[in-house]
């Protein structure tokens, strides 16, 4: 479980996150949505301990990150496809993370197999496609079989087969009782797999409701999209005219 309570983050004069409170529960997939500049990435980094809160508290499974004797068994992070040494193989990439977390080398092969990278375990990650790097990032998050997972745009770069695979993976992890917090712009996948949806805009919490309630608040052929647009209409920084002239 992830609990965010009254969290704010200031960078100089800029208030990137403003008094945000929400929870992501075990056995559920909570999506964190919002326009560019909403504060989602900053929130993810604070949950991961990569940035300090200016105020408020964040707890994971009832504790702060620094309180865990073995963080890798409690929470896994997939926050970027490019956090790797291009000269390492996929196996080597996971090996140093396993060693840091006190895990045996034998834990690596099952994780690579689960994300579909077992056939390329010995290949340099510098030769990986973006979609393969996304799978490798998810493999990193799965090391240690953590109770909680935080993933930032995990579907980026995946082809259709990859998106279907990711969908089934997330649903399977939630069915195992894990807590998943996923930042995304893919409303189709949110509607298919989401349990709860948290929406931010310009650093503030705009909505925190179940996926079903959010869909019910929408209208037209794409109700989730219409509900999202209505909630965020005053929080979009970049607006351009579309359509044909």
Description:
The longest helix has 16 residues, at 160-175. This protein has eight helices and nine strands. The relative contact order is 0.18. The strands form two sheets. It has a six-stranded mixed beta sheet with strand order 5-6-7-3-8-9, sandwiched between helices. It has a three-stranded antiparallel beta sheet with strand order 2-1-4, with helices on one face. The protein is globular. By secondary structure, the protein is of the alpha/beta class. The model has no long low-confidence stretch (mean pLDDT 93). The protein has two domains: 1-72 and 148-167 and 179-237, 3-Layer(aba) Sandwich (Rossmann fold); 75-145. Helix content is 32%, strand content 24%. The protein has helices at residues 40-47, 90-100, 108-114, 130-142, 160-175, 187-193, 211-216, 223-232, and strands at residues 2-11, 14-24, 28-33, 55-60, 75-78, 148-152, 179-183, 196-201, 204-210.
């Amino acid at each position: 479980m992830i609990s965010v309570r009254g969290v704010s983050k200031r960078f100089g004069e800029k208030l990137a996150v403003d008094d945000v409170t929400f929870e992501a529960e075990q056995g559920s997939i909570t999506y964190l949505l919002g326009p560019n500049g909403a504060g989602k990435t900053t929130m993810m980094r604070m949950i991961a301990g990569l940035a300090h809160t200016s105020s408020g508290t964040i707890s994971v499974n009832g504790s702060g990150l620094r309180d865990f004797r073995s963080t890798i068994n409690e929470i896994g992070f997939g926050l970027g496809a490019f956090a790797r040494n291009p000269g390492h193989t996929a196996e080597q990439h996971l090996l140093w993370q396993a060693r840091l977390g006190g895990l045996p080398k034998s834990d690596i092969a099952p994780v690579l197999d689960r994300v579909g990278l077992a056939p390329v375990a010995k290949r340099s990650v510098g030769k990986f496609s973006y979609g393969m790097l996304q799978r490798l990032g998810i493999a990193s998050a799965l090391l240690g079989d953590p109770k909680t997972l935080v993933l930032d745009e995990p579907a980026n770069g995946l082809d259709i087969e990859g998106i279907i695979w990711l969908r089934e993976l997330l649903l399977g992890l939630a069915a195992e009782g894990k807590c998943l917090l996923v930042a995304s712009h893919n409303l189709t996948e949110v509607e298919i797999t989401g349990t709860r949806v948290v929406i931010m805009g310009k650093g503030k919490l705009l909505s925190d409701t179940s996926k079903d309630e959010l869909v019910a608040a929408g209208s037209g052929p794409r109700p989730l999209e219409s509900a999202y647009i209505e909630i965020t209409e005053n929080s979009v920084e970049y607006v351009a005219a579309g359509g044909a002239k």
